[in-house]
Amino acid sequence: MLAIRGLHSHYGLSHIIQGIDLDARAGEVIGIFGRNGVGKTTLLKTIAGWVTASAGTVTLAERGLCGLSPDRVCHAGVGFVPEDRRIFPGLTVEENLSLGLLQVRGRSRQQEHRAIDAIYGRFPRLGERRHQLGTTLSGGEQQMLAMARVMVGEPRLVLIDEPSEGLAPMIVAEVFAIVRELRDRGAIVLLVEQNVHEALSVADRFHVVERGKIVFSGEAGVETDCTRLMQLIAV
Ligand SMILES: Nc1ncnc2c1ncn2[C@@H]1O[C@H](COP(=O)(O)OP(=O)(O)OP(=O)(O)O)[C@@H](O)[C@H]1O
């Protein structure tokens, strides 16, 4: 369902993504690992349309995404939870969540309300804080809000960048539970994560990136693959 072929992207003259090929099926979680600065975030941003691809294709459910604006990529079913979470200042929790509704066209008002209520059922703390400014939430709650905002749009592909960064272990467990839920709903999840052990508990497969290329790929449950992975990302 997701096919990435020969993807390249640049920041000015810096060639960051240097020919990435990647496939994923519905309901798969793919871990994207690698040392700092190898291009993991840039890969997600290129798929999301935040960075323009200089070559290659990204196809999701037969639709080409390269060259589309971030907005259109979003409408094509791609949810992005960036590392800084992008909780909009000046907007309440509910207003932040409502932005996720923009991803799906053609829903009635009633369906939109139901979608938001379902989120409050799943994340009661967001419900309790619905009228509070999103930026006044704790770091963990903001991560939940960023993920919930994406879930409201029922994306086919979810890009998640370093979700556990700076969070307490209990919240990290909650973050990974949400990744499992997304998978169980049939979404593809591309998960960039430094917390490799946790990520392997939820990932089906993984890729290791070095200097903008995939240098090793493996299956999360296979011991030899995981040993090699740890060697590659050891500092
Ligand atoms: N906006 C930008 N303009 C120019 N160079 C950038 C920009 N953003 C990132 N870079 C550079 O691109 C390279 C890849 O960065 P990227 O953030 O994609 O790496 P990463 O693997 O996600 O690393 P980290 O784990 O540290 O976030 C780095 O050398 C970084 O300094």
Brief characterization of the structure:
The protein has about 240 residues and is of the alpha/beta class. It has one domain: Rossmann fold (3-Layer(aba) Sandwich), CATH 3.40.50.300.
Name its key features:
235 residues, alpha/beta, Rossmann fold, six-stranded mixed β-sheet, 38% helix, binds adenosine-5'-triphosphate
Layout of helices and strands, plus pairs?
Layout lengths: L1 E10 L2 E11 L4 E5 L6 H9 L4 E8 L2 E2 L5 H6 L2 E4 L11 H9 L7 H14 L1 H5 L10 H13 L5 E5 L7 H16 L3 E5 L3 H7 L2 E6 L2 E7 L3 H11 L2
Parallel strand pairs: 3-8, 3-9, 6-7, 7-8
Antiparallel strand pairs: 1-2, 1-4, 4-5, 9-10
This protein binds adenosine-5'-triphosphate.
The site of adenosine-5'-triphosphate has 11 residues, from strand 2 and helix 1.
Explained architecture:
InterPro entries: AAA+_ATPase (IPR003593), ABC_transporter-like_ATP-bd (IPR003439), ABC_transporter-like_CS (IPR017871), BCAA_Transport_ATP-bd_LivF (IPR052156), P-loop_NTPase (IPR027417). Involved in beta-(1-->2)glucan export. Transmembrane domains (TMD) form a pore in the inner membrane and the ATP-binding domain (NBD) is responsible for energy generation. Helix content is 38%, strand content 27%. The protein is an alpha/beta fold and 235 residues long. The protein has one domain (2-233): P-loop containing nucleotide triphosphate hydrolases (Rossmann fold, 3-Layer(aba) Sandwich). The chain has a six-stranded mixed β-sheet, with helices on both faces. Strands 2-1-4-5 form a four-stranded antiparallel β-sheet, covered by helices on one side. A hairpin with a 2-residue loop joins strand 1 (2-11) and strand 2. Helix 6 packs parallel to helix 7 (169-184). Adenosine-5'-triphosphate is lined by residues 11, 14, 16, 34, 36-42.
